[in-house]
């Protein structure tokens, strides 16, 4: 059973003259009143009584009072805490009547419960650390957060490279009607040389035919001119004519090959190869882009698995409040970070976490509750009751939502007469 404040009695602390009250066990006790009347002084006095000298006000004596401060608090576990005298010495008496000290209180009184602003003013990471530690998954969540950040950054870099590769490929030219591989100039030149050799042989045969024709003509002339040598040359003429006939047949069958196309291809080979290389580069760029997009998809799946593991870890944890989580090292509530929560949501989150930090401490002190409207205040009170929590809070108001009104250091009665005596007797307390 968590410890609550059953009753408190405060005299001559800061602005308080004499205030004694029994707060409700579960739910919200609102100390109302105008500014400067002693509401916050009540909370400061309770924190001082239960938390020790580290919570002592810098100027605890009420101005104008010759009587030293007196604080007395009765707790639901039967322990009575008292500070009194010139040195405000502490006396703690347990249920068996034994005396104790601050160590006895520290065992079940949460520092955050006495000083909730300390938690609320912490950084987002500090709040997240507190939550993760109390539910026992802090180290594992931060390992997953670190892994998630690393994979996310790597995936982003891969995605950027893939986009660059794709853009580079899209901007590159592509040509139709060119080979898939660069053309070899030496092969074309060798073909050209073979054709030129064959054509050279053809020219030689043509020259030989021309020479034979010239010789035949000369011989025929010689025969005509030198009749007397007819016999001598007839035999030779017959041979030459036979050779000439063979030569004519050979020449008639000759066909010259054109080297124009090869010459044109040789001339255009650099341009063809440029286009071929451009097509190959474009294909390589497209393939690189596909490869990086594949890596991006794999890392996306890895990132989603890490996030799922983290979410499962948090969702299966015993969180102090539905909707609480940790995102990228920051505490969130219903998807909102601390600075985007309403004031009432911040108070609810802080109260729930502080309760979880020390379940034995069943109360919390809240200052400046005027940030809540009356409807929100009622909802907050119902939530406290459902959680079995006790909250003692201040609010600048004289409305019906206030449990008591503090005026000029006293509890204001319905007849406006200040209440200066405790609500319980010395024997009862």
TrEMBL record:
Gene3D superfamilies for the chain: P-loop containing nucleotide triphosphate hydrolases
Location of the Rad50/SbcC-type AAA domain: 10-237
Keyword match Flavoprotein: no
Range of residues in the leader sequence: none
UniProt keyword Coiled coil, yes or no: yes
Superkingdom of source: Bacteria
A Pfam family per the record: AAA_23
SUPFAM superfamilies named in the record: P-loop containing nucleoside triphosphate hydrolases
GO biological process, one term: double-strand break repair
Molecular function GO labels: ATP hydrolysis activity
Coiled-coil intervals: 195-257
Keywords assigned by UniProt, alphabetized: Coiled coil
Family classification: Belongs to the SMC family. SbcC subfamily.
Subunit structure, interactors included: Heterodimer of SbcC and SbcD.
Protein name: Nuclease SbcCD subunit C
Organism name: Ruminococcus bromii
């Amino acid at each position: 059973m968590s410890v609550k404040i059953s009753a408190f009695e405060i005299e001559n602390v800061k602005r308080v003259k004499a205030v004694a009250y029994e707060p409700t066990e579960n739910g919200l006790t609102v100390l109302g009143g105008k500014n400067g009347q002693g509401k916050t002084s009540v909370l400061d006095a309770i924190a001082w009584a239960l938390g020790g000298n580290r919570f002592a006000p810098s100027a605890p004596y009420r101005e104008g009072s010759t009587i030293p401060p007196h604080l007395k608090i009765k707790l639901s576990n039967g322990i009575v805490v008292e500070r009194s005298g010139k040195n405000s010495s502490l006396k703690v008496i347990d249920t068996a009547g034994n005396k104790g000290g601050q160590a006895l209180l520290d065992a079940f009184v949460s520092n955050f419960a006495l000083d909730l602003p300390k938690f609320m003013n912490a950084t987002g990471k500090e709040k997240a650390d507190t939550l993760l530690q109390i539910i026992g998954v802090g180290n594992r969540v931060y390992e997953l957060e670190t892994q998630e950040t690393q994979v996310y950054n790597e995936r982003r870099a891969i995605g950027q490279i893939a986009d660059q590769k794709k853009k580079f490929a899209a901007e590159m030219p592509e040509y139709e009607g060119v080979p898939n591989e660069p053309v070899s100039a030496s092969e074309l030149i060798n073909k050209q040389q073979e054709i030129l050799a064959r054509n050279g042989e053809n020219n030689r045969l043509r020259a030989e035919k021309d020479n034979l024709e010239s010789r035949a003509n000369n011989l025929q002339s010689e025969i005509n001119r030198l009749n007397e040598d007819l016999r001598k040359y007839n035999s030779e003429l017959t041979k030459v004519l036979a050779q000439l006939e063979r030569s004519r047949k050979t020449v008639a069958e000759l066909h010259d090959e054109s080297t124009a196309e090869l010459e044109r291809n040789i001339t255009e080979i650099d341009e063809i190869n440029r286009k071929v290389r451009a097509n190959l580069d474009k294909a390589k760029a497209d393939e690189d882009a596909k490869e990086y997009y594949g890596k991006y998809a794999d890392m996306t799946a890895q990132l989603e698995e890490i996030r799922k593991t983290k979410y499962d870890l948090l969702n299966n944890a015993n969180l102090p409040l539905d909707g609480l989580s940790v995102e990228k090292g920051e505490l969130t509530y219903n998807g909102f970070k601390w600075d985007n929560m309403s004031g009432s949501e911040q108070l609810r989150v802080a109260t729930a976490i502080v309760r979880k930090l020390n379940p034995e401490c069943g109360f919390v002190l809240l200052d400046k509750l005027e940030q809540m409207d009356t409807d929100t205040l009622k909802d907050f009170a119902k939530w406290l009751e459902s959680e079995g929590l006790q909250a003692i809070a201040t609010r600048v108001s004289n409305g019906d939502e206030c449990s008591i009104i503090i005026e000029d250091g006293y509890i204001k009665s319905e007849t406006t007469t200040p209440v200066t005596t405790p609500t319980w007797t010395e024997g009862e307390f």
